[in-house]
Amino acid sequence: MYSSDPDSFSTWADDLLYFYPWDAVDTTRRRLPHWRQNGTIYYVTFRLADSIPQFRLDQLRLERTDWLAMHRNQPMTKDMRQEYYRLFGERVETWLNSGHGSCLLRAPHLRRFVSETLAHFAGQRYDLGAWCIMPNHVHVLLKLLNDFALSDVLHTWKSYSAHQINKLLNRRGLVWQHESYDHIVRSPQSLLRIEQYILNNPVKARLQPGEYETINPDQLWSKN
């Protein structure tokens, strides 16, 4: 859907309205140079395994495949970006915010495992920007350090926190959805809008204090 030329992102990437954070990208298979670039800022979303009913995801994938096929040979206009976000990104956002599934992370003692995991290698493998732990999903801004791969960082986060959550609940099974969703932040304007989106997510979902956790550390990424 998107060109690998960074300059081609200059129009849509500056406005969160057109940003689709749930478009899964396999960073090891894409093999684009900027995915390994030291200091790249990413916006990452990962969610609990039961956060969206499978039948909804299956239907969304079918509709998205049909939509992309229909527009395959057309330039991506502003109206098309708006339509894409409305049909796909906005729907997933609504589903996540509706509080479907077990919403394990509504419990502070379980949410703590996630926040501790995110912070554990901060300053060594990555710098953390704004992040938010919702009842059934997590949003994170991060900047990779020292050539660490995003896929490895995400695997560590999900594997360790899942182990701790299952251990505390005395259970086995999948905690996180296998896929994670990531997007390169390509401008200071986009960074600001994503930060606002992350920090306002609990308000939009009408959560009460104690049902979520947000952090906005003092980062100067946009000035670097």
Please summarize what this structure is.
The chain is of the alpha+beta class.
Q: Could you describe the 3D structure shown?
A:
It is a single chain. The protein has a single domain, classed as Alpha-Beta Plaits, CATH 3.30.70.1290. Mean pLDDT is 79; it is low at 1-37 and 219-224. The protein has 224 residues and is of the alpha+beta class. A hairpin with a 3-residue loop joins strand 2 and strand 3. The protein is built from six helices and five strands; from the N terminus they run αβαααββαβαβ. A five-stranded antiparallel beta sheet has the order 4-1-3-2-5, sandwiched between helices.
Q: Could you say how many structural domains there are in total?
A: 1
The poorly predicted ranges are 1-37, 219-224
| CATH topology category name | Alpha-Beta Plaits
* Count of discrete alpha- or pi-helical segments spanning 4 or more residues: 6
Q: Write down the CATH class.
A: Alpha Beta
Structural class: alpha+beta
Question: What's the β-strand tally?
Answer: 5
What name goes with the CATH superfamily?
Transposase IS200-like
Q: Mean of residue pLDDT?
A: 79
Overall body shape:
globular
The N- to C-terminal Cα distance equals 29 Å
Summarize this structure as a short list of keywords or feature phrases:
single chain; alpha+beta; Alpha-Beta Plaits; 6 helices; 5 strands; disordered N terminus
